[in-house]
């Protein structure tokens, strides 16, 4: 017997009906999805005054980690700018550094921020901590080159959506435990935080087609974890496992009420509060997974983006604190 589910927002429901949806993933379908041509990044840069630079950062195992650096162009560029370090979504098995890039590019325009997006390696080609290690190494490089980038090292915000949100949480835990680099804030957009799939919302979105179902989530996590047993999974990979959420930067968490990740995201924010930290949590009524990225034109999506912008404005203000 299937569990009752929260209703979708009416505008989102109408648009979702026209989307090609799946219920499960396989090695073959992931390979097919990876071959689909992505939207060229130039499409998102059109009409924006943006300077773009590409660099590659060496990882400890010798791989090269590509970073795309987007800076305000012309008169919009100033020294000591805030920085948004972006980690893309895609279930840790798909996507690249230009995935969902329109979200942080809005912050480049609005706040004069330097946006840096990391192309971490994907599962199952790599497993375990490799993905979060790649993201962390890129962040270290950004902090070490803050002056050259025109970035204020005290205003580096880490951010990501879905799998990227989970990697963002893992990077923040890693930076806290290692004592570097300093992170001003973390933004977790519908983050993928818990490999166990034990919540009510995970069970609600099992079976049937969807944007991201319980079965798709299980496939993504199996791809990342490889041969690791449950007791061997590091909290940097599955941040919900972290025993201690104290000492984290101020945090923004959001999710839709009608998605797999709802309950693990609410729990993560609740545990940050319980540890004495600061978190702002929003659960958008009727939102499916990634609703604001897939359907930015509807009212609930506009509200979600506007609320994130307002939070970032407070975080990035030199004279204010969240």
Percent helix among the residues? Answer: 25-40%
Shape: globular
Strand content: 15-25%
State the separation between the terminal residues, measured CA to CA: 44 Å
Structural class: alpha/beta
The CATH architecture would be 3-Layer(aba) Sandwich
**Uncertain segments:** none
Whole-number count of domains: 1
The helix count comes to 12
Largest sheet: 8 strands, mixed
Mean pLDDT: 95
Strand order of the largest sheet: 1-2-4-3-5-6-7-8
Helix/strand order: HHHEEEHEHHEHEHHEHEHH
Looking at CATH, the homologous superfamily is: Alpha/Beta hydrolase fold, catalytic domain
Q: What would you report as the Rg, rounded to the nearest angstrom? A: 18 Å
Structure summary, number of beta strands: 8
* CATH classification, class level: Alpha Beta
* CATH level-3 fold name: Rossmann fold
């Amino acid at each position: 017997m299937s569990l009752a589910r929260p209703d979708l927002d009416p505008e989102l429901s109408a648009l979702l009906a026209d989307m090609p949806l799946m219920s499960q993933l396989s090695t073959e379908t992931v390979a097919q999805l990876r071959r689909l041509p992505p939207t060229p990044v130039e499409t998102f840069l059109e009409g924006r005054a943006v300077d773009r630079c590409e660099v590659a950062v060496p990882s400890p195992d010798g791989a090269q980690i590509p970073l795309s650096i987007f800076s305000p162009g012309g008169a919009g560029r100033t020294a000591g700018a805030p920085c948004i370090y972006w980690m893309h979504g895609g279930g840790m098995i798909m996507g690249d550094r230009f995935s969902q890039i329109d979200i942080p590019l809005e912050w480049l325009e609005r706040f004069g921020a330097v946006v840096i997006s990391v192309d971490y390696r994907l599962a199952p080609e790599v497993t375990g901590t490799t993905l979060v290690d790649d993201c962390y190494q890129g962040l270290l490089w950004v902090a070490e080159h803050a002056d050259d980038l025109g970035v204020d090292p005290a205003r580096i915000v880490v951010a990501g959506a879905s799998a990227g949100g989970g990697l963002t949480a893992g990077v923040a835990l890693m930076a806290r435990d290692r004592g570097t680099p300093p992170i001003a804030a973390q933004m977790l957009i519908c983050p993928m935080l818990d490999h166990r799939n034990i919540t009510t919302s995970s069970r609600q979105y099992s079976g049937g087609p969807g944007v991201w179902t319980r079965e798709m989530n299980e496939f993504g996590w199996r791809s990342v974890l490889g041969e690791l047993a449950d007791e061997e999974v590091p909290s940097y990979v599955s941040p919900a496992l972290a025993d201690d959420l104290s000492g984290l930067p101020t945090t923004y968490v959001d999710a839709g009420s009608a998605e797999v990740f709802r309950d693990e995201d609410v729990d993560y924010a609740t545990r940050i509060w319980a540890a004495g930290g600061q978190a702002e949590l929003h659960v958008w009524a009727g939102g499916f997974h990634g609703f604001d990225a897939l359907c930015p034109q509807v009212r609930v999506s506009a509200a979600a983006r506007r609320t994130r912008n307002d939070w970032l404005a407070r975080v990035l203000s030199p004279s204010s604190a969240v």
